[in-house]
Design a protein that fits this description.
The chain has 191 residues and is an alpha/beta fold. It is built from 9 helices and 5 strands; from the N terminus they run αβααβααβαβαβαα.
Length: 191
């Protein structure tokens, strides 16, 4: 009988401590490229959300050099059942490899968003310089727009990085702070 009471208490405690799962899906801009994962914006976003009283886990599913083909192929493992929000940054790698270009960049963006929304996952979209054309596609598919990934990051917080193309830790702080209201709104709507 005492075991039953303990199981009930643990079950109730687990229900109140349940974590919403947020996934950051992208390439090197999401991964942090040269930085430890703890210095990339997804980890910093998790800390900001917790400071705002939102008990969440933000999973960094960014892979350096990834394309939308790769993101689509790993979508189910990157955003498993229980995921409530995906922050999707398709990155800029689809057109970098001239010998193996991604055949359907726009179609991949639509398919990723459609598949996530069909599962009841809210999608927050943020892109790089190519987002001028990608943002309308994402919004038509039902994603909310959260601006360009590096929006607001001063040039020195990109140029001073080891490769001159990815943000420094200070740049990742700016990205996390900008993502915060978009993710809070998405979580409220999924509540």
């Amino acid at each position: 009988m005492r075991w039953l009471g303990l199981v009930l208490i643990l079950t109730l405690f687990g229900a109140t401590e349940a974590k919403a799962q947020v996934v950051a899906l992208g390439a090197s801009g999401t991964r942090g490229y040269h930085l430890p994962e703890s210095e990339a914006w997804p980890a910093k976003l998790e800390a900001l959300l917790r400071r705002h009283g939102v008990n969440v886990s933000v999973s960094n599913q960014g892979i350096n050099g990834d394309t939308t083909d790769g993101m689509l192929s790993r979508l189910d493992s990157a955003a498993p059942d229980g995921t409530r929000v995906v922050i999707f940054d398709p990155g800029g790698n689809d057109y970098k490899n001239k010998r193996h270009p991604v055949a359907d960049h726009e179609g991949n963006i639509r398919t990723i968003i459609d598949r996530l929304r069909a599962r009841g996952v809210a999608v927050v979209f943020s892109g790089g310089p190519e987002s001028a054309t990608d943002a309308p596609i994402a919004q038509q598919a039902g994603a909310s727009w959260c601006g360009r990934l590096y929006q607001g990051v001063p040039p020195e917080d990109i140029e001073d990085s080891p490769d001159g193309h990815h943000p420094t830790p200070a740049g990742h702080d700016i990205i996390a702070a900008r993502m915060l209201p978009c993710v809070l709104q998405a979580l409220r709507h999924k509540g």
